[in-house]
Here is the input.
Amino acid sequence: MNVIETSIPGVVIIEPRIFKDARGYFFESYSKKEFDEKVRPVDFVQDNESCSAYGVMRGLHFQRPPFAQSKLVRCVKGRVLDVAVDIRKGSPTYGRHVAVELTEDNHRQFFIPRGFAHGFAVLSDIAVFQYKCDNYYHPEADGGISIQDESLGIDWLIDPTKAILSEKDLNHSVLAGFDSPFDFNIDQYKK
Here is the structure.
């Protein structure tokens, strides 16, 4: 796998090595050994999948410590714009984001470390989206930042009048009114 560094250390794009021939293609979508060596040691414990229609925006979600999650995400059908926002107090990149287009054709994956809010917008008629998480879902630890917070400067590549959000996602606070549970100077992976 090829690991592409982004403008925020620790947030990476992963491109698999794809083998194509007349029958189709094959690639290894995940290798713990290679991931631990090239990205960071992570023990993924839960896989999730969602299916969404064009204009659906999910996020920007995170789980509060001690239930914080890293995510390794990919789009297996369709096309999404996937975003990670740094919400670690004291971080030199606090409030900044990385956006990457994930598609069924580019097979890219995106790693979002603990201490980041995550969201995506569906750019195709439908999208099937998969997540690997390194902590189990805990509803009491749910947190979020408004996906429509203009101060974040995210171009979601969809007309805002066509955006489809859940009631929960419509009620998240903007970053300016947010008290982050993450501290840049505390290792979120230390047990």
Summary: The helical segments are 32-38, 167-170. The first strand starts at residue 2 and ends at 5. The chain has a mean pLDDT of 96.
